[in-house]
Amino acid sequence: MKEAHFPRLFEPARLGEVRLKNRIVMLPMGTAYASVIGEVTQKTIDHYVARARGGVGLIVLGGTSPFSMPGLNRLVLYDDRFLAGHYELVEAVHAHGVPIGIQFNHAGRQWYPWALEGRQPVSASDIALAPQGQHPFPKPRPLEKEEMYQIMDRWAEAAGRAKKVGYDMVEIHAAHGYLIEQFLSPRTNKRTDEYGGSLENRMRFALELLERVKRVVGDSYPIGFRFSAEEFVEDGITIKDSPAMAKLFEAAGAAYLSVSCGTYESQDKSIDVMRLPEGWKQYLWEAIEKAVGIPVIAGGGLRTPAFCEDILAQGKADFIGLARPLLADPDWPRKARDGRTEDIRPCISCLECLSGSPRRRLGGGARRCSVNPAAGREAEFTLDSDPGFMELKPAAIRKRVMVVGGGPAGMEAASIAALRGHDVTLYDKGRELGGALLLASAAPGKAPIANFNNYLKTQVDKAKVKVSLETEVTPERVRREKPDVVVVATGGRPEMPESLKRPNCVSALEVLSGKAPVTDKKVVVVGGGMVGLEAAEYLAHRGNKVTVIKRSPRFAPDMEAHNRHATIQALSEAGVTLQARREALEAVEGGLLAIDLDSGQQTIIAADVVVIALGAAPDRGLAEAMESEVPEIYTVGDCNEPRIIMEAVYEGSRVARRI
What we know:
single chain; alpha/beta; TIM Barrel; Rossmann fold; FAD/NAD(P)-binding domain; 3 domains; 21 helices
């Protein structure tokens, strides 16, 4: 029976001998939910079961090593003692009618220095890595042939274990600059033996590996490759080379090709930073699809069912690969199948789920999601079909709930509380809901945040939350309405030093909100954090000549590394000047008096307008005034401490479950 919504997306298909109920593949992502020695944990199982229940056609387990522990809490399968956990995982996913594959990888020169424990990394050649936004990695040594054969054997043994516990297929990671790609790429392979030089020689390591794996698992067991069709680095793999590579993979017996791009040196492309448009990689998928007869999985930067349907309908790929969209909403497939696309929690490509995020590093590396507080907390936030995002326990006592502030924390709290059966009214002093999301989405390249804001507003409406806009909530109003619960989500207020409170000064928030329009002016932005850089790019796109100053040597340390790299590159292209180690002393007529913190020299930076982006302070006035007068009062989001979307959504959802 054909699906009424997105018929190509929900058409049954096969990868090798494995039958899929639809053409949606969960691409491999490491989660860091494993135990300290790399075992499958219940958290791991809960995470993948949630995606199986959400209706995906195939899950490919990512981040698994056939060798020693590659990093903190990463899955391994290099020994039989790890079989039991993998068996439990496979059984749990199969119980929902979903096949599951496992991807194996060796990082080569991209092994993180802190995980090497004093060892020298290995690669095809001795070319060191300088990844985007990070210090150079240690110089690797070229692998000896005997070591290469040992790696192949260990890989094949791990594949045998995977087949033994019931994985339906194995994927070989030959993308994103890891060891196999280090052999494939002319940039990193300078060998003069039979494993270097021509394309056929550079392919030899990968194809011999495939042959050894097949000896163990058999020719009928599906083995796929994930590979980069374009590296976006000098002397690297290009789309001129990759169709020929794809043909060699096919001739050697690969069951499918999962097509990606990039390396650690071009990681903004491989992981799709926020400013990249949906589907920008389709020329890569299409070129590989035309070159081979085996199935091609398109993946990276895809977000919406309609776009994915078009990729399949136009014959640019055979399957759709989703990674972070399924982290954001495990029910993405089921909601698409049912035509409820407005209920899909959209991935905003903030990349806070990646290891480069300051938040993830502080949290020990476990994967979290800005828009989905249930990611990594599936046992606590159990997923179910209705209301589509989380199974919500009905409130034991129905309460009158007043939510003050219509930003992400307030909207999340209001909709979840209403779905639990409470009588909820959401107040905001603005003309529309969104709060900080409205400002964050105003800067160039931030459209995905507007999509999330629209999602939250839709859920508030569907939950039948009463909304009162342009309403200032005072203590007197709270006393008059006598709610049972008050959730304060009043956000933060901009920090404005007295020396910068002058007629020519405005806050970055006033600029981004449109309250202080600035065009064709000389502008200096004081503060080089995330908001300061966003305001600078916004202003540059409106014809302003912009300079940004910052006390510290590093701009936007609060920003996720890859989006930061892309933003600074965009600022350079827009002609924005960045001046580090400068401190604003005072706004003066004609500009800003600033001091060079290294030389001590004071200068006036000429400017018509001074934009202040020095952070925000929590707005806790209402909470402090009412804390002893309301039976239950909670604070969520930036009124606790100005942070990012992730904390706001989590706190709003968590509080709504308590009341």
